[in-house]
Each structure stands twice: as C-alpha cells, then as structure tokens.
Amino acid sequence: MSTNAQTVTALEAQHVLQTYKRLPVVFVRGEGTRLFDESGRGYLDFISGIGVVVLGHAHAGLAAVVADQAKTLIHTSNLYYHPLQGQLAAKLASLSGLQRSFFCNSGTEAVEACLKFARRYWYSKGVKHRTGYVALEHGFSGRTMGALSVTANAHYREPFEPLVPGVTFVSPDDVAGLEAAVTESTAAIIAEPIQGEGGVRPLPPAFAAAIARVTRQTGTLLIADEIQCGLGRTGRTFEFQGLGWTPDLVTIGKAIGSGIPIGAALVAEHVAKEIFPGDHGTTYGGNLLSTRAAIYVLDQLSGPIAANVKAVGPVFERRLLDLQKKHPVVRSVRGAGLMRGLELAVDAQPAIDAALKAGLLVNRTAERVIRMLPPLTVSVAEIDEAIGILDRALASVPAPGSGVEVKA
After folding, report:
1. Which of 274, 301, 328 is the last residue before a domain boundary?
2. pLDDT tens across 304-343, in order?
3. Domain interval for residue 135
4. What backbone torsions phi and psi does residue 363 show, to the nearest 5 degrees?
C-alpha cells in the first residue's frame, strides 16, 4: 500500500465509524468496467458497487445529465412540484405494471416504505389486526430497524433486538411452512426473487408458485424485493415477471441511479388508494438530481444494454460452469443473467483475496459464495478476462478438509 493510501486509511481509522471491513485498496477513478487505485493500477470490476453501477463507471451520458441538472436545479423539497417525479413514475409504471411510485434515497428506505404501506392498507380497510409479515430465511432487506426485522441473519439482528414484532421466517424450500405461516394476522409477504446477500439463491419454482397462490387465496399483500435482481440484471426488467407474481408492492434501488442515490417503492393502485398525505415522507427523496439521473438510466437500460445482458448472460453462465467442472471446490453456479454466485465447499474469502491481488473485484457473501454483479455493459472479452483470473484464484484456494471448510 502506497503512502497516499496509508494516509487515507489512517484518517478513516481515526475519524470514520468502523462499521465496514474494507479491503486494502483505495479507488480514485473509474472507466467502464474498470476501477483505478491511487497508484494508477486498473481492476476489472465485477461487483459494480454491489450491483449499482449498471452503466459502468464514469459513463459520459450520465455525467452530462447530472452536470446539467446540477447547474439548473438540484432540490426543492416535496413541499412543491417539479417536472421529473411524474415522468420517472410513469416510466416505472409502464415497466412494472404498478401504477404509482414513492421515491426515496435507497433500497432499504424503499423496504421501510413498503412495510409501512402494507400495514396502512389493512388499517385503512378497518382490518387492524393484520400487522404481521412473513419473510424468508436467507433473505436480506436492509439494516434499518424495519428492514432488519424482515432480514433473517441472526448476526445482523441480535445486537439490535427487540425489532419490529410479528415477523415469521420461512425456509424457501418449505411450501407447507409458508402456507402455515400466512394467517389472518399477516399483512404481507416480502421476498427477493433471487436472494442476493443470502448467497445468490433463486427461489425454487414450486415455492415461488406457492407465494403467488397463497397471496391470491388469502389477500395477503406481496412485496417483491427487486433491489438487487431488478431493472435488467437477470435479463428481465423485473425478475418477478418470470415467476407468475402480481406483486402489490415492489422495492427498487441500486441500479436505478447507476450510482446516484435513489430508491423507490412501487405501489399498485388498490394499495395506493389506502395511503394518504402524511403517511410517509422524505426530505431528499425524488429530488431533481436523482430523478433526472434515473430517467436517463432507465432509457439506457431499455435499449442496447438489455440486449447485451441477454447476449452475454448465457456466456457468463457457461464460463462459470466450466470453472465448476475444473475445480472440485466449486459446488454450484447460481443466479441468472449478470447476477451470479459460485458456491464453494470452503470459505470464499481466500478466493476473493486472490482475485483482488490479480486485479479482479468480486465479493464474498453467505460465507461460501463468490458473488458477481458486473456492470450491464460488460463484454464477452471482459467476462473471459475475469474467468481467467477466477480460474487462477480458485486454484489457490485450500481444498475441503484443509481446516478452512465452512459448514453448509
């Protein structure tokens, strides 16, 4: 680590709250699918800000839009109208089938909004006992108190309990458990079509179908958490569209701003009719800068970038399956499109570290999974480059039984 990097890390160590375990690299510039550290070394970025920078780094068109809006008008507050919220909401309605949007600053805030809206829906209808939620094991919805309450991992939850009461967790392999968990007291089910932080786990088709059936039969609201898998990452605009779901609420974040902070709760009209002025709010949510950026990003995602994901996603999968055949330490290849995970038989951290040293950024999640979320602009050549680095990184990983194996 250079002297400049040491200065950066030392200053953080003194003044920044230590809630992150950062890897030992300082990035100062980006271009396309690459990041560059303070010494000028390039890294192939296959995590893209945890699925955020879908257009790639330093995208010229997005930069121009943001610069133009910044010198025109950034913020007015939600006390007044401006031209862009309605335009963005109309685009999202066309893409999702949900008529209305509530704009906020992140995916976690979108979850908080949807949890509130689900309760408000039943309260407005005079069914005040429907306050509970059903969430899934391995699910992750965020770290604020409401979102944390529907996040399964005890490591995240226990230091902050008691959390919001009335949450029941169900295994995504247990259809009977789902059916038993949904009662006359359940306001909503919240589920990620592909669980991201939980290890890039697509919901089993039978379980996804059971969610659709149970919500339809009981009237329970369905919150589809599309923060990580939505907006084109899997090859679909929204992953719920391939599951037979008709969600009442959808959470989005990450990709929608390609780095400009924005999230949204998408709300079906029958739910929106039960939400009233003062029920929720935000100071920054839906300001001109973020909505202008999001409109631009959505326009980009609906064009050649969508075609690129459909073209390179299958190539990515085949290359990863080839790695699985070559390396016994790889147990499975999971995910869809450009949302992929390699499940290992051992802790994934040594592979993450080896990849970083070789110039590839990937991420460890659920202990044994190498998660990959490259920009949606990634090329086949860049995929091949990443696979070559992963090949060498996996070859350096200790085999199962060598003392670093993690229980499944």
Report:
1. 301
2. 999 999 999 999 999 999 999 999 999 999 999 999 999 9
3. 63-301
4. -140, 145
Q: Which residue has the tokens 């429907």?
A: 130
End residue of a domain, out of 276, 301, 326: 301
**Location of structure tokens 């602009």:** 377
Rg (CA), the chain: 21
* CATH number of the domain residue 340 falls in: 3.90.1150.10
Give the model confidence (pLDDT) of 356-393 as tens digits. Answer: 999 999 999 999 999 999 999 999 999 999 999 999 99
Tally the domains of the chain: 2
In a domain, 403, yes or no: no
Write out the DSSP string of 51-87: HT-TT-BT-HHHHHHHHHHHTT-----TTS--SHHHH
> Positive or negative, the Cα torsion across 208, 210, 215, 216?
positive
- Three-state DSSP at 210 gives helix
Single out the residue of 130, 157, 138 nearest to residue 146, CA to CA: 157
Do residue 18 and residue 127 come from a single domain? no
Q: Confirm whether pTM is higher than 0.70.
A: yes
